[in-house]
Amino acid sequence: MRLFVWWTALALGAAPGTPPVATPDREAAALQREIARNGWIVYSAITERGDWDLFRSRPDGSERCNLTRTSDTHELGGRFSPDGRRILFRRIGKDTKFNHDRWGALGQLVIANGDGTNPVAQGVAGDYPWASWSPDGAQVACLTRNGIEIRDLASGRVVRSLDRRGIYQQLFWSPNGRWFTGTANTYGENWTVIRIHAETGEANPVHKFQNCTPDWSPDSKRIIFSSRPANQGDDEGLSQAAGQKPDYGWTQLLIADGDGANRMLVYGEDGRHIYGGALSPDGKYVLFTRAARDGGMGEATIHVMRLRDAPVVGGVSAALRKRYPQAKRGPVVAVATGWEPHWSNGPAAGPK
Amino acid sequence: MRTVVALMWLGLAACTTAPAPADPELSSLGKHEVTAELLEIPGPFPANDLYNYAFVFKYRVRQVHRGSVPPGEIFVGHYNPRKPRAAAADEESGTIGGRVGQFRAGDVHRMALAEPLDHHWMGGIIDKYFEQKGTRYWAVWTNPASR
Q1: Is residue A155 part of a domain?
Q2: Residue B146 and which of A108, A206, A249, B116 are 20 to 30 A apart at CA?
Q3: Is residue A17 part of a domain?
Q4: What CATH number does residue A54 fall under?
Q5: Is B49 on the interface with A (CB under 8 A)?
Q6: Per the CB < 8 Å rule, is A145 touching B122?
Protein backbone atom coordinates (compact mmCIF):
# COMPACT_ATOMS: atom_id res chain seq x y z
CA MET A 1 0.00 0.00 0.00
CA ARG A 2 2.81 2.37 0.85
CA LEU A 3 4.40 1.68 -2.52
CA PHE A 4 1.10 2.28 -4.27
CA VAL A 5 0.79 5.68 -2.64
CA TRP A 6 4.41 6.45 -3.47
CA TRP A 7 4.14 5.84 -7.17
CA THR A 8 0.85 7.67 -7.33
CA ALA A 9 2.49 10.65 -5.67
CA LEU A 10 5.33 10.50 -8.15
CA ALA A 11 2.94 10.28 -11.05
CA LEU A 12 1.10 13.31 -9.77
CA GLY A 13 4.22 15.18 -8.82
CA ALA A 14 4.44 17.32 -11.89
CA ALA A 15 6.52 20.48 -12.00
CA PRO A 16 4.76 23.86 -11.88
CA GLY A 17 2.93 24.65 -15.05
CA THR A 18 2.47 21.07 -16.12
CA PRO A 19 -0.55 18.96 -15.36
CA PRO A 20 0.10 15.53 -13.91
CA VAL A 21 0.31 12.34 -15.91
CA ALA A 22 -3.35 11.39 -16.16
CA THR A 23 -3.37 7.72 -15.35
CA PRO A 24 -6.44 6.10 -13.82
CA ASP A 25 -5.19 4.48 -10.64
CA ARG A 26 -6.93 1.19 -11.28
CA GLU A 27 -5.26 0.71 -14.66
CA ALA A 28 -1.89 1.78 -13.30
CA ALA A 29 -2.28 -0.59 -10.38
CA ALA A 30 -2.98 -3.43 -12.80
CA LEU A 31 0.12 -2.54 -14.79
CA GLN A 32 2.11 -2.37 -11.59
CA ARG A 33 1.02 -5.90 -10.67
CA GLU A 34 1.95 -7.16 -14.13
CA ILE A 35 5.51 -5.93 -13.90
CA ALA A 36 6.21 -6.40 -10.21
CA ARG A 37 7.91 -9.80 -10.56
CA ASN A 38 9.02 -9.43 -14.18
CA GLY A 39 12.79 -9.36 -13.67
CA TRP A 40 14.88 -6.44 -12.49
CA ILE A 41 15.87 -2.97 -13.58
CA VAL A 42 19.14 -1.18 -12.95
CA TYR A 43 19.51 2.60 -13.05
CA SER A 44 21.58 5.49 -11.74
CA ALA A 45 20.25 7.88 -9.12
CA ILE A 46 21.52 10.58 -6.79
CA THR A 47 22.03 9.45 -3.23
CA GLU A 48 21.47 11.41 -0.05
CA ARG A 49 25.23 12.14 -0.15
CA GLY A 50 24.87 13.90 -3.49
CA ASP A 51 26.75 11.40 -5.63
CA TRP A 52 25.35 9.04 -8.26
CA ASP A 53 25.12 5.36 -7.37
CA LEU A 54 23.69 2.36 -9.20
CA PHE A 55 20.39 0.99 -7.95
CA ARG A 56 18.55 -2.20 -8.72
CA SER A 57 14.85 -2.76 -8.18
CA ARG A 58 11.89 -4.64 -9.50
CA PRO A 59 10.36 -2.89 -12.51
CA ASP A 60 7.62 -1.46 -10.28
CA GLY A 61 10.23 0.12 -8.00
CA SER A 62 9.95 -2.40 -5.17
CA GLU A 63 12.93 -4.19 -3.58
CA ARG A 64 15.14 -1.18 -4.31
CA CYS A 65 18.78 -1.75 -3.45
CA ASN A 66 21.89 0.44 -3.78
CA LEU A 67 24.46 -1.70 -5.63
CA THR A 68 27.53 0.48 -5.33
CA ARG A 69 27.40 2.68 -2.20
CA THR A 70 30.42 4.78 -3.12
CA SER A 71 30.81 8.32 -1.87
CA ASP A 72 33.96 9.29 -3.77
CA THR A 73 32.84 8.23 -7.25
CA HIS A 74 29.75 8.33 -9.45
CA GLU A 75 28.40 5.18 -11.10
CA LEU A 76 26.40 5.63 -14.27
CA GLY A 77 25.05 3.73 -17.24
CA GLY A 78 24.35 0.32 -15.75
CA ARG A 79 23.53 -2.41 -18.29
CA PHE A 80 22.79 -6.03 -17.50
CA SER A 81 24.67 -8.68 -19.45
CA PRO A 82 22.46 -10.67 -21.83
CA ASP A 83 22.19 -13.51 -19.28
CA GLY A 84 21.39 -11.02 -16.54
CA ARG A 85 24.15 -12.27 -14.26
CA ARG A 86 26.50 -9.28 -14.61
CA ILE A 87 26.30 -5.54 -15.05
CA LEU A 88 28.62 -3.08 -16.69
CA PHE A 89 28.77 0.59 -15.80
CA ARG A 90 31.08 3.63 -15.74
CA ARG A 91 32.83 4.67 -12.56
CA ILE A 92 33.54 8.39 -12.77
CA GLY A 93 35.52 10.56 -10.37
CA LYS A 94 33.32 12.69 -8.19
CA ASP A 95 34.90 15.90 -9.44
CA THR A 96 34.50 14.99 -13.11
CA LYS A 97 31.98 17.09 -14.99
CA PHE A 98 29.52 15.00 -16.95
CA ASN A 99 26.18 15.45 -18.60
CA HIS A 100 23.39 13.27 -19.90
CA ASP A 101 24.97 12.38 -23.22
CA ARG A 102 28.73 12.17 -22.68
CA TRP A 103 29.08 9.98 -19.62
CA GLY A 104 29.73 6.84 -21.68
CA ALA A 105 33.27 7.86 -22.56
CA LEU A 106 34.24 9.09 -19.09
CA GLY A 107 35.87 7.26 -16.21
CA GLN A 108 36.47 3.53 -16.05
CA LEU A 109 34.40 0.65 -17.30
CA VAL A 110 33.52 -1.64 -14.41
CA ILE A 111 31.98 -5.11 -14.62
CA ALA A 112 30.34 -6.59 -11.54
CA ASN A 113 27.96 -9.34 -10.62
CA GLY A 114 24.32 -8.52 -11.14
CA ASP A 115 23.93 -7.77 -7.46
CA GLY A 116 26.87 -5.34 -7.52
CA THR A 117 29.37 -7.66 -5.84
CA ASN A 118 32.90 -8.22 -7.15
CA PRO A 119 33.27 -5.02 -9.21
CA VAL A 120 36.31 -5.24 -11.49
CA ALA A 121 37.62 -2.19 -13.37
CA GLN A 122 38.54 -2.82 -17.01
CA GLY A 123 41.57 -0.84 -18.11
CA VAL A 124 42.21 2.74 -17.15
CA ALA A 125 40.07 5.86 -17.27
CA GLY A 126 38.82 6.46 -20.78
CA ASP A 127 39.23 2.85 -21.90
CA TYR A 128 36.30 0.91 -23.32
CA PRO A 129 34.24 4.02 -24.23
CA TRP A 130 30.51 3.36 -24.65
CA ALA A 131 31.03 -0.36 -24.00
CA SER A 132 28.07 -2.48 -25.06
CA TRP A 133 27.66 -6.23 -24.46
CA SER A 134 27.99 -8.84 -27.19
CA PRO A 135 25.18 -11.41 -27.33
CA ASP A 136 27.26 -13.97 -25.39
CA GLY A 137 28.64 -11.44 -22.92
CA ALA A 138 32.23 -12.40 -23.75
CA GLN A 139 32.98 -9.23 -25.70
CA VAL A 140 32.02 -5.57 -25.70
CA ALA A 141 31.75 -3.15 -28.60
CA CYS A 142 33.40 0.19 -27.87
CA LEU A 143 33.10 3.51 -29.66
CA THR A 144 36.48 5.13 -30.21
CA ARG A 145 37.68 7.94 -32.46
CA ASN A 146 39.15 5.27 -34.73
CA GLY A 147 35.94 3.32 -35.08
CA ILE A 148 33.89 0.60 -33.43
CA GLU A 149 36.22 -1.78 -31.66
CA ILE A 150 35.17 -5.25 -30.55
CA ARG A 151 37.15 -6.16 -27.44
CA ASP A 152 37.46 -9.53 -25.82
CA LEU A 153 36.80 -9.09 -22.12
CA ALA A 154 39.03 -11.96 -20.97
CA SER A 155 42.14 -10.72 -22.77
CA GLY A 156 41.30 -7.05 -23.25
CA ARG A 157 42.37 -7.34 -26.88
CA VAL A 158 40.68 -5.66 -29.82
CA VAL A 159 39.59 -8.59 -31.97
CA ARG A 160 37.88 -6.63 -34.73
CA SER A 161 37.14 -3.06 -35.71
CA LEU A 162 34.99 -1.29 -38.24
CA ASP A 163 34.14 2.22 -39.36
CA ARG A 164 31.82 4.00 -36.96
CA ARG A 165 30.05 5.76 -39.83
CA GLY A 166 29.75 9.03 -37.96
CA ILE A 167 28.46 7.59 -34.67
CA TYR A 168 29.82 9.71 -31.85
CA GLN A 169 27.92 8.51 -28.81
CA GLN A 170 25.44 5.97 -27.42
CA LEU A 171 26.61 2.88 -29.28
CA PHE A 172 24.53 -0.25 -28.70
CA TRP A 173 25.08 -3.75 -30.09
CA SER A 174 21.92 -5.60 -31.07
CA PRO A 175 20.90 -8.67 -29.04
CA ASN A 176 21.44 -10.93 -32.08
CA GLY A 177 24.87 -9.44 -32.73
CA ARG A 178 24.13 -8.45 -36.33
CA TRP A 179 23.75 -4.69 -35.93
CA PHE A 180 24.91 -1.60 -34.13
CA THR A 181 22.93 1.54 -33.49
CA GLY A 182 24.09 4.90 -32.24
CA THR A 183 23.81 8.67 -32.54
CA ALA A 184 25.66 9.94 -35.59
CA ASN A 185 26.69 12.83 -37.79
CA THR A 186 25.33 11.90 -41.18
CA TYR A 187 23.28 13.35 -44.00
CA GLY A 188 24.15 16.92 -43.01
CA GLU A 189 22.61 16.66 -39.57
CA ASN A 190 24.04 15.70 -36.25
CA TRP A 191 21.85 13.74 -33.85
CA THR A 192 20.81 11.20 -36.47
CA VAL A 193 20.12 7.71 -35.17
CA ILE A 194 21.61 5.18 -37.56
CA ARG A 195 21.97 1.40 -37.85
CA ILE A 196 25.19 -0.31 -39.00
CA HIS A 197 25.46 -3.88 -40.22
CA ALA A 198 28.05 -5.52 -37.99
CA GLU A 199 29.62 -7.57 -40.82
CA THR A 200 29.42 -5.37 -43.92
CA GLY A 201 29.62 -2.01 -42.17
CA GLU A 202 26.78 -0.67 -44.29
CA ALA A 203 24.75 2.01 -42.57
CA ASN A 204 21.25 3.39 -42.89
CA PRO A 205 19.50 6.25 -41.12
CA VAL A 206 16.74 5.33 -38.72
CA HIS A 207 15.64 8.89 -38.10
CA LYS A 208 17.31 12.21 -38.96
CA PHE A 209 17.35 15.49 -37.00
CA GLN A 210 17.56 15.73 -33.24
CA ASN A 211 17.48 12.11 -32.12
CA CYS A 212 19.50 10.19 -29.57
CA THR A 213 19.64 7.42 -26.93
CA PRO A 214 18.70 4.54 -29.25
CA ASP A 215 18.25 1.02 -27.93
CA TRP A 216 17.20 -2.32 -29.38
CA SER A 217 14.06 -4.37 -29.17
CA PRO A 218 14.77 -7.90 -27.90
CA ASP A 219 14.33 -9.34 -31.43
CA SER A 220 16.84 -6.82 -32.86
CA LYS A 221 14.28 -5.69 -35.44
CA ARG A 222 13.24 -2.36 -33.97
CA ILE A 223 14.99 0.60 -32.37
CA ILE A 224 13.50 2.78 -29.66
CA PHE A 225 14.93 6.29 -29.41
CA SER A 226 14.30 9.88 -28.35
CA SER A 227 13.45 12.62 -30.82
CA ARG A 228 12.73 16.34 -30.59
CA PRO A 229 10.83 17.35 -33.72
CA ALA A 230 10.82 20.92 -35.01
CA ASN A 231 7.76 23.20 -35.00
CA GLN A 232 5.84 21.52 -32.21
CA GLY A 233 3.68 24.59 -31.55
CA ASP A 234 3.41 23.93 -27.85
CA ASP A 235 2.34 26.26 -25.06
CA GLU A 236 4.99 28.93 -24.42
CA GLY A 237 4.15 28.85 -20.74
CA LEU A 238 5.51 25.33 -20.52
CA SER A 239 8.79 26.41 -22.06
CA GLN A 240 9.04 29.35 -19.69
CA ALA A 241 8.43 27.07 -16.72
CA ALA A 242 11.27 24.82 -17.87
CA GLY A 243 13.58 27.74 -18.67
CA GLN A 244 13.86 26.94 -22.34
CA LYS A 245 13.23 28.97 -25.49
CA PRO A 246 9.66 28.96 -26.82
CA ASP A 247 10.44 27.08 -30.01
CA TYR A 248 12.81 24.57 -28.42
CA GLY A 249 10.25 21.75 -28.28
CA TRP A 250 9.91 18.62 -26.17
CA THR A 251 11.77 15.33 -26.63
CA GLN A 252 9.51 12.38 -27.40
CA LEU A 253 10.02 8.63 -27.37
CA LEU A 254 9.66 6.91 -30.75
CA ILE A 255 10.14 3.41 -32.11
CA ALA A 256 10.90 2.34 -35.68
CA ASP A 257 12.05 -0.65 -37.65
CA GLY A 258 15.81 -0.91 -38.09
CA ASP A 259 15.50 0.48 -41.62
CA GLY A 260 13.56 3.48 -40.33
CA ALA A 261 10.16 2.27 -41.52
CA ASN A 262 6.99 2.11 -39.42
CA ARG A 263 8.10 4.90 -37.12
CA MET A 264 5.60 5.69 -34.37
CA LEU A 265 5.26 7.68 -31.16
CA VAL A 266 5.56 5.63 -27.99
CA TYR A 267 5.25 8.37 -25.35
CA GLY A 268 5.24 12.14 -25.50
CA GLU A 269 4.22 14.96 -23.23
CA ASP A 270 4.31 18.71 -23.79
CA GLY A 271 6.36 20.09 -20.92
CA ARG A 272 8.55 17.03 -20.49
CA HIS A 273 11.67 15.61 -22.17
CA ILE A 274 11.56 11.84 -22.57
CA TYR A 275 14.79 9.84 -22.69
CA GLY A 276 16.24 6.49 -21.74
CA GLY A 277 13.81 4.37 -23.76
CA ALA A 278 14.39 0.65 -23.18
CA LEU A 279 12.21 -2.39 -23.70
CA SER A 280 11.61 -5.25 -21.30
CA PRO A 281 13.19 -8.58 -22.29
CA ASP A 282 9.80 -9.85 -23.50
CA GLY A 283 9.30 -6.67 -25.53
CA LYS A 284 5.97 -5.92 -23.89
CA TYR A 285 6.92 -2.99 -21.67
CA VAL A 286 8.76 0.28 -22.12
CA LEU A 287 11.03 2.02 -19.65
CA PHE A 288 11.71 5.73 -20.05
CA THR A 289 12.72 8.81 -18.11
CA ARG A 290 10.79 12.05 -17.90
CA ALA A 291 12.16 15.48 -16.93
CA ALA A 292 11.09 19.10 -17.31
CA ARG A 293 14.56 20.30 -18.29
CA ASP A 294 16.32 18.86 -21.31
CA GLY A 295 19.23 16.90 -19.93
CA GLY A 296 17.87 17.20 -16.40
CA MET A 297 19.42 13.99 -15.09
CA GLY A 298 18.95 14.74 -11.41
CA GLU A 299 15.26 15.55 -11.66
CA ALA A 300 14.27 12.74 -14.02
CA THR A 301 11.79 10.07 -13.01
CA ILE A 302 11.68 6.55 -14.44
CA HIS A 303 8.36 5.24 -15.78
CA VAL A 304 6.93 2.06 -17.29
CA MET A 305 4.14 1.61 -19.82
CA ARG A 306 2.94 -1.18 -22.10
CA LEU A 307 4.21 -1.00 -25.66
CA ARG A 308 0.83 -2.13 -26.92
CA ASP A 309 -0.73 1.02 -25.40
CA ALA A 310 1.42 3.26 -27.60
CA PRO A 311 1.04 5.98 -28.55
CA VAL A 312 0.52 7.46 -25.11
CA VAL A 313 0.41 11.22 -24.55
CA GLY A 314 0.81 12.38 -20.97
CA GLY A 315 -0.43 15.51 -19.26
CA VAL A 316 -2.68 18.05 -20.98
CA SER A 317 -0.34 18.31 -24.00
CA ALA A 318 -2.78 20.29 -26.15
CA ALA A 319 -0.38 20.54 -29.09
CA LEU A 320 0.68 16.91 -29.03
CA ARG A 321 -2.88 15.65 -28.66
CA LYS A 322 -3.84 17.65 -31.71
CA ARG A 323 -1.24 15.71 -33.64
CA TYR A 324 -2.12 12.36 -32.06
CA PRO A 325 -5.85 12.57 -31.37
CA GLN A 326 -6.16 8.81 -30.91
CA ALA A 327 -3.35 8.58 -28.35
CA LYS A 328 -4.12 6.98 -25.01
CA ARG A 329 -3.41 8.62 -21.66
CA GLY A 330 -1.81 5.59 -20.06
CA PRO A 331 -1.53 3.66 -17.97
CA VAL A 332 1.93 4.76 -16.91
CA VAL A 333 3.60 3.77 -13.66
CA ALA A 334 6.22 6.00 -12.06
CA VAL A 335 8.98 3.81 -10.66
CA ALA A 336 11.66 5.99 -9.10
CA THR A 337 13.82 9.03 -9.62
CA GLY A 338 16.76 8.01 -11.78
CA TRP A 339 18.44 7.92 -15.17
CA GLU A 340 19.35 5.43 -17.93
CA PRO A 341 17.31 2.44 -16.76
CA HIS A 342 17.87 -1.05 -18.15
CA TRP A 343 15.71 -4.18 -17.74
CA SER A 344 16.70 -7.83 -17.42
CA ASN A 345 14.78 -10.99 -16.68
CA GLY A 346 17.95 -12.73 -15.51
CA PRO A 347 18.72 -13.64 -11.93
CA ALA A 348 20.76 -10.45 -11.37
CA ALA A 349 22.71 -12.28 -8.70
CA GLY A 350 26.05 -13.22 -10.20
CA PRO A 351 27.61 -16.21 -11.96
CA LYS A 352 26.38 -19.75 -11.40
CA MET B 1 45.49 73.74 -34.85
CA ARG B 2 46.11 71.46 -31.88
CA THR B 3 43.44 69.09 -33.23
CA VAL B 4 45.06 68.96 -36.63
CA VAL B 5 48.44 68.14 -35.11
CA ALA B 6 46.87 65.40 -33.01
CA LEU B 7 45.16 63.87 -36.04
CA MET B 8 48.41 63.99 -38.02
CA TRP B 9 50.22 62.28 -35.18
CA LEU B 10 47.53 59.61 -34.97
CA GLY B 11 47.66 59.09 -38.71
CA LEU B 12 51.43 58.76 -38.63
CA ALA B 13 51.20 56.36 -35.73
CA ALA B 14 48.65 54.28 -37.58
CA CYS B 15 50.87 54.11 -40.65
CA THR B 16 53.97 53.13 -38.73
CA THR B 17 52.45 50.76 -36.20
CA ALA B 18 53.67 47.23 -36.82
CA PRO B 19 51.01 44.54 -37.25
CA ALA B 20 50.15 42.59 -34.12
CA PRO B 21 52.56 39.73 -33.65
CA ALA B 22 51.20 36.45 -34.87
CA ASP B 23 49.94 34.13 -32.18
CA PRO B 24 52.49 31.36 -31.65
CA GLU B 25 49.59 28.90 -31.66
CA LEU B 26 49.07 29.55 -35.38
CA SER B 27 52.48 28.22 -36.26
CA SER B 28 52.60 25.42 -33.73
CA LEU B 29 49.16 23.83 -33.33
CA GLY B 30 47.55 21.39 -35.74
CA LYS B 31 49.16 20.12 -38.91
CA HIS B 32 48.56 22.99 -41.33
CA GLU B 33 48.47 26.78 -41.35
CA VAL B 34 46.57 28.62 -44.04
CA THR B 35 45.07 31.97 -44.92
CA ALA B 36 41.65 31.47 -46.46
CA GLU B 37 38.46 33.36 -47.27
CA LEU B 38 35.21 32.30 -45.63
CA LEU B 39 32.90 31.94 -48.62
CA GLU B 40 29.50 31.58 -46.97
CA ILE B 41 27.61 30.80 -43.78
CA PRO B 42 25.37 27.85 -44.68
CA GLY B 43 22.45 28.43 -42.36
CA PRO B 44 21.90 29.67 -38.81
CA PHE B 45 23.93 28.38 -35.88
CA PRO B 46 21.94 26.32 -33.37
CA ALA B 47 22.02 27.44 -29.76
CA ASN B 48 24.69 26.22 -27.36
CA ASP B 49 22.46 26.08 -24.29
CA LEU B 50 22.93 22.36 -23.84
CA TYR B 51 24.61 20.80 -26.84
CA ASN B 52 28.04 21.55 -28.28
CA TYR B 53 28.77 21.03 -31.93
CA ALA B 54 31.13 21.79 -34.81
CA PHE B 55 29.80 23.66 -37.83
CA VAL B 56 31.41 23.14 -41.23
CA PHE B 57 32.25 26.21 -43.34
CA LYS B 58 33.51 26.45 -46.90
CA TYR B 59 36.71 28.45 -47.41
CA ARG B 60 38.85 29.34 -50.42
CA VAL B 61 42.55 28.91 -49.70
CA ARG B 62 44.69 31.97 -50.43
CA GLN B 63 47.99 30.86 -49.01
CA VAL B 64 49.41 27.79 -47.35
CA HIS B 65 51.98 28.73 -44.71
CA ARG B 66 52.60 25.29 -43.26
CA GLY B 67 51.61 21.74 -44.11
CA SER B 68 49.91 20.60 -47.29
CA VAL B 69 46.41 21.85 -47.95
CA PRO B 70 45.17 21.62 -51.53
CA PRO B 71 44.45 24.86 -53.39
CA GLY B 72 40.87 25.94 -53.96
CA GLU B 73 37.93 25.27 -51.67
CA ILE B 74 38.26 23.44 -48.38
CA PHE B 75 35.85 22.54 -45.58
CA VAL B 76 36.65 23.61 -42.04
CA GLY B 77 34.75 22.73 -38.87
CA HIS B 78 34.62 25.40 -36.18
CA TYR B 79 33.58 24.51 -32.63
CA ASN B 80 30.50 26.34 -31.35
CA PRO B 81 30.78 29.21 -33.88
CA ARG B 82 28.31 31.42 -32.02
CA LYS B 83 31.10 32.12 -29.55
CA PRO B 84 34.18 34.34 -30.06
CA ARG B 85 37.17 32.09 -30.63
CA ALA B 86 38.87 33.39 -27.49
CA ALA B 87 35.93 32.14 -25.42
CA ALA B 88 35.04 28.96 -27.29
CA ALA B 89 37.36 26.41 -25.67
CA ASP B 90 35.96 24.15 -22.97
CA GLU B 91 36.67 20.75 -21.43
CA GLU B 92 35.12 18.99 -24.42
CA SER B 93 36.84 20.89 -27.22
CA GLY B 94 40.48 20.61 -26.19
CA THR B 95 42.76 23.45 -27.21
CA ILE B 96 41.14 25.87 -29.63
CA GLY B 97 41.16 29.65 -29.79
CA GLY B 98 42.11 32.76 -31.72
CA ARG B 99 41.02 36.34 -32.16
CA VAL B 100 38.05 36.05 -34.49
CA GLY B 101 35.02 37.39 -32.67
CA GLN B 102 32.34 36.60 -35.19
CA PHE B 103 32.08 34.61 -38.40
CA ARG B 104 31.04 36.62 -41.46
CA ALA B 105 31.00 35.55 -45.08
CA GLY B 106 33.78 37.28 -47.00
CA ASP B 107 36.12 37.58 -44.04
CA VAL B 108 39.64 36.23 -44.33
CA HIS B 109 41.11 34.05 -41.59
CA ARG B 110 44.52 32.74 -40.80
CA MET B 111 44.05 29.32 -39.26
CA ALA B 112 45.91 26.43 -37.73
CA LEU B 113 44.14 23.29 -38.89
CA ALA B 114 44.13 19.64 -37.91
CA GLU B 115 42.54 16.70 -39.71
CA PRO B 116 40.28 14.84 -39.92
CA LEU B 117 37.60 16.74 -38.09
CA ASP B 118 35.92 13.74 -36.49
CA HIS B 119 39.15 12.50 -34.95
CA HIS B 120 39.58 15.78 -33.13
CA TRP B 121 35.96 16.44 -32.21
CA MET B 122 33.87 13.41 -31.36
CA GLY B 123 30.53 15.10 -31.02
CA GLY B 124 27.82 16.71 -33.09
CA ILE B 125 28.91 18.00 -36.50
CA ILE B 126 26.63 20.07 -38.70
CA ASP B 127 27.86 19.70 -42.25
CA LYS B 128 25.56 21.19 -44.86
CA TYR B 129 28.11 20.20 -47.52
CA PHE B 130 27.80 16.52 -46.70
CA GLU B 131 27.22 15.62 -50.35
CA GLN B 132 30.54 17.19 -51.35
CA LYS B 133 33.61 15.04 -50.89
CA GLY B 134 36.79 16.34 -49.34
CA THR B 135 38.69 16.45 -46.09
CA ARG B 136 36.95 18.09 -43.17
CA TYR B 137 39.52 20.10 -41.21
CA TRP B 138 39.28 21.04 -37.53
CA ALA B 139 40.00 24.70 -36.82
CA VAL B 140 42.38 24.80 -33.89
CA TRP B 141 43.31 28.48 -33.99
CA THR B 142 41.52 31.19 -35.99
CA ASN B 143 42.69 34.77 -36.37
CA PRO B 144 41.48 37.57 -38.63
CA ALA B 145 43.71 38.30 -41.63
CA SER B 146 43.82 41.17 -44.07
CA ARG B 147 41.80 40.80 -47.23
Answers
A1: yes
A2: B116
A3: yes
A4: 2.120.10.30
A5: yes
A6: yes
| Chain B residue nearest residue A147, CA to CA | B119
Q: Which chain A residues touch B125 with a CB distance below 8 Å?
A: 166, 168, 185, 190
Q: Which has the closest alpha carbon to A313: A277, A266, A251?
A: A266
For residue A37, what are the domain limits?
A: 2-344
Distance from CA of A295 to the nearest CA of B (A): 8
Residue type, A43: Y
- The DSSP bridge partners found for residue B119 are none
Residue to test with chain A: of B125, B126, B136, most A Cβ within 10 A: B125
Reading chain A (352 residues) residue by residue, the pLDDT tens digits are 333 333 333 443 333 333 344 455 899 999 999 999 999 999 999 999 999 999 999 999 999 999 999 989 999 999 999 999 999 999 999 988 888 888 899 999 999 999 999 999 999 999 999 999 999 999 999 999 999 999 999 999 999 999 999 999 999 999 999 999 999 998 777 799 999 999 999 999 999 989 999 999 999 999 999 999 988 987 778 899 888 988 899 999 999 999 999 999 999 999 999 999 999 999 999 999 999 999 899 899 999 999 999 999 999 999 999 999 999 999 999 999 999 999 999 876 544 4
- Closest Cα partner for A285 from A84, A78, A60, A85? A60
Peptide bond into A246 cis (omega under 30): no
Instruction: In whole angstroms, give the CA distance from residue A76 to residue A86.
Output: 15
- Chain B's closest residue to A248, CA to CA, is B47
List CB contacts (< 8 A) between A244 and chain B: 49
CB spacing of B125 vs A185 below 8 angstroms: yes
If one counts every other C-beta atom within 10 angstroms of the C-beta of residue B53, the result is 21
Q: Which residues of A198-211 are buried (b: 16+ CB within 10 A; e: fewer)?
A: beeeebebbbbbbb
Say if strands B136-144 and B97-98 run parallel, antiparallel, or are unpaired. parallel
Distance from the Cα of residue A45 to its chain's centroid: 13
On whether the CB atoms of residues A270 and A319 are closer than 8 A, the answer is yes
**pTM attached to this predicted model:** 0.88
